[in-house]
Write a structure and sequence with these properties.
This protein has 87 residues and is an all-alpha fold. It is built from five helices and no strands.
Length: 87
């Protein structure tokens, strides 16, 4: 099966995981990882690249909208695909 760099980059940039790429391209996950390595491509970090200040602002906005949410705000942040690494 031929999987070219452009296909991998396109799917990766759309946020596909290796498992999702394999499903889309009808191949094995191991083939996806081999092709990514051969093309020196890396899957994007699963964590958001936003700053602490941006995260604070985002959480404050959520608290304004849902002032009784409490710790549920972190669940909403995860649901919005703003994944942060706990320090």
């Amino acid at each position: 099966m031929q999987i070219d760099r452009q296909q991998l980059v396109c799917l990766r940039d759309q946020g596909f995981t290796a498992v999702q790429m394999a499903g889309e391209l009808k191949c094995s996950v191991s083939l996806i990882y081999r092709r990514l390595a051969a093309e020196n491509l890396h899957m994007r970090s699963k964590f958001s690249q936003i700053t602490d200040t941006q995260l604070d602002q985002y959480a404050q906005e959520l608290h304004k909208k849902h002032n009784n949410a409490g710790s549920e705000v972190s669940c909403h942040i995860c649901a919005d695909t703003v994944h942060v690494l706990n320090k």
